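ok so dumb question maybe but i'm new to this and my supervisor (M.) told me to 'just get the structure for RUN domain-containing protein' and walked off. so i did the thing. is this what she meant?? sequence i used:
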Amino acid sequence: PEELQGPTGTPHTPLALLIAVSTAVDKVIAHFSSARNVVQKAQLGDSWLSPDVGYLLLHTLCPALYGLVEDGLKPFQKDVITGQRRNSPWSVVEASVKTGRSGETLGRPPWDAWSPFPARPLAGRVWAHCSDSLRAVHPTGPNTRSLHNLCWRVAGLAPLSSTRQKFHAFILGLLK
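this is what came out, is it supposed to look like this??
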């Protein structure tokens, strides 16, 4: 397969990005597999009682998802006011949960308009497929509003200074 340069300059392939996500998910599932009932699952999911789950999420799952979304992202997007703005997986999240006038989530990052992804991005194809599937199942309603509210709350957290931290917090909020 074609080898690409990652954001840190390390070579990676699209398949390696998917394997990293799959491996992280397997580790999280294995963490919960010892639970025999709902109470034990809740305890295993509480990072105060089980610090391992926090480590798994923050050091395996979140970075793997960040890398997948970041793959192929153009470095900048056009901005009417500032001319250009740096792209990041967090900006993809913000664009994905942007609401329209009637309050429904528009559901697709606007790469059709300002194209942060080149023609063949793995993350762009995966994200477009997922958002199309989600719209087909539940195009509007309280769940889409919840995504917007979660994004808005994460964006307002002053201690989260980097886009990576905001992306990770959003993923943790989704898992809550």
